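Researcher: Re-running this chain for the archive, since the previous output was lost when a drive failed. Same request as before.
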Amino acid sequence: MQIEIEYCVPCGYLDRAIDAQRTLLSTFGQGLDAVTLKTGEKGVFTFRADGDVIYSKPDAYDITTIVEAVKARL
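Model: Regenerated structure tokens:
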């Protein structure tokens, strides 16, 4: 499974995106093919699992919910 985290550069979401990437990689390790960061703008903060959106701002950000969504897909 490939996870893509698209984040708004001007909004300063890089640190949050890196933290999420680290959490997903440490939780699932080799169970994931990749956790990639994709730069964006206009407030975007979106997580995709194999192209399907599993989280998108403005929903309340909760890494635990995102981890559970990934776990359910593995």
